[in-house]
Amino acid sequence: MSTKAYYPINEIGKGKPGFATTRSIIEAPFYGNNVIKVNTLREAYELAKNSPGTVVTDMPVYRGEEFGLDKDAKVLLFNDGAITGRYATARRIAGEPGVNCGALDKVVMDAVYETRWKTMYHAEVFAGLDPEFMVKVHLLIPEGEENILYNWMLNFQYMSDEYAKMYKASKPIGDGKEADIYIFSDPQWNGSDRPGVDLSCLSDPKCLCYFNTDQNCAAILGMRYFGEHKKGTLTMVWALANRNGYASCHGGQKEYNLTDGSKYVASVFGLSGSGKSTITHAKHGGKYDVTVLHDDAFIINTDTCSSVAIEPTYFDKTQDYPTGCEDNKYLLTAQNCSCTLDEDGKIQLVTEDIRNGNGRAIKSKLWSPNRVDKIDAPVNAIFWIMKDPTIPPVVKLKGASLASVMGATLATKRSSAERLAPGADPNALVVVPYANPFRTYPLANDYEKFKKLVEEKNVDCYIINTGDFMGKKVQPKDTLGILEAIVDKTAQFKQWGPFSDIEIFEWEGFVPNLDDAAYAEQLKARMEDRVKFVANTAVVKEGYDKLPDDALAALEKIVAELK
């Protein structure tokens, strides 16, 4: 599937698809006489390499010529400053109650005007890597931000001959009514007062991520961190996919090709730092022939249950990859890390979050040896990754409503990938529906899609806790051992205590005792938290995210059985 870039004269005008206020503000500057088109990764690399402040390390890009770089390309390092994480507080989503699009449009109009004094770069990429689903995305960003531009083109699919042909041959998305995505970015914007501009529509007058997903456009202002541009793009693509029959997934997916000829497709959903990348890329000691789709972003066709990756590369934390480790062979760029000279006087990265939290790198597709852009086999299981200390290392959910609502009330802890608002507790347990803080449409849309997968497509659903269980840390070897037992069909699930719709696989060292009054009380409290969350969806944001009644009933049943 493809999006639309060119319009016959009779299709241009007010009220026609692709033409509305916010989009018209954002698209026009792409054609300005101060704009330079960046067509290839080689061009973007040279711009980033020569951008002031870039560190050109002595680490070679492994097999870079296979994906659009010169053979002698090096890993580039660029550091953003004090901000090294995403800032959810800055997000404004058109269509949500209380969001003043008129005021936001004025902010963007003035930001666009200010860039007339700057040289701007225009780049294009594909998001979605199979003819079934491919979206063309445009980015406009000022001179001086060449590293963001280069990272963005690396993170998504640059327009190689292979993918350009694939895109041209694909069918239009939404019967040709879905326009290309346009993103205007000015990290240098500082929110100065201007005539006709009211900054009170922003939570922070110095930055803004404004999404109008119905119009396939966004503006990112005053934000240097590359992750804002990566997740901002995914935000737009996931919204477009949601409109067109897909479940949008912030997680990882892998396919186990078993010795009996069968396949087992597992999808894991979790926030950054939850373990989704570890689970997705785990090689299981060579025990299985594994195919990886992606570890962060994909979509599931809710009719065929096949899955498509959105990105070719990996935006990964560097915390667990010390200098010189084998995995670093696949680095393309690094952000918010340090560097030093080795014994030969060569510039090497200093990782492990020594400089700051949330050091990052983009790794090439080659990092995962059995990587594919699409998994045709239908998904077999969904795993909600939680860091709720009352949940055992694994439970299985029966019933489509319970399976989906537990995803909607996914409880976890924040990670260093996020810049929190002042006063926010980084250790508090929070609910992030479907582990996707980038949703821009009503929560019920995701609820119904995941419910359909369980109810109509017979997809199994589990919760896995990768945090602490009642004070004892669940180790990666525990989680992977549980996953292997499920894949091998040796996991023995049985009804968990009084819960008619929850089964447990008792993992040694982590067997819950429901006769322990203190534990039962904590479990009850966490389930009641979920009940309150779902009940509040009818009230918060004027009911914008209200979930269906069966979602609340499924949780109330658990609380009643626990009593």
Distance between the first and last residues' Cα: 50 Å
Secondary structure tally: strands: 29
Q: What is the helix fraction of residues, given as a range?
A: 25-40%
The number of distinct structural domains comes to: 2
The CATH topology of the largest domain, please? Answer: Phosphoenolpyruvate Carboxykinase, domain 1
Radius of gyration: 23 Å
* Main sheet specs: 11 strands, mixed
* Spans of at least 5 consecutive residues with low confidence: none
Number of distinct helices: 12
Mean residue pLDDT: 94
The shape, in one word, is globular
Pathway: Carbohydrate biosynthesis; gluconeogenesis
Protein name: phosphoenolpyruvate carboxykinase (ATP)
Keywords: ATP-binding, Lyase, Nucleotide-binding
GO molecular function: ATP binding; kinase activity; phosphoenolpyruvate carboxykinase (ATP) activity
Mind sketching the topology for me?
Blueprint: H1 21-27, E1 35-38, H2 41-49, E2 55-60, E3 74-78, E4 91-93, H3 101-114, E5 120-130, E6 133-142, H4 146-155, H5 161-169, E7 181-186, E8 208-212, E9 217-221, H6 226-243, E10 246-257, E11 263-269, H7 276-281, E12 289-294, E13 297-301, E14 307-309, E15 314-317, E16 331-335, E17 338-341, E18 347-350, E19 360-363, E20 374-375, E21 381-386, E22 394-397, H8 400-408, E23 411-413, E24 429-431, H9 443-455, E25 460-465, E26 468-469, E27 472-473, H10 476-487, E28 494-495, E29 502-504, H11 517-536, H12 549-562
Parallel strand pairs: 1-5, 3-16, 4-8, 6-7, 7-9, 11-21, 21-25
Antiparallel strand pairs: 2-3, 5-6, 8-9, 10-11, 10-12, 10-13, 13-14, 14-20, 15-19, 16-19, 17-18, 22-25, 22-29, 23-24, 26-27, 28-29
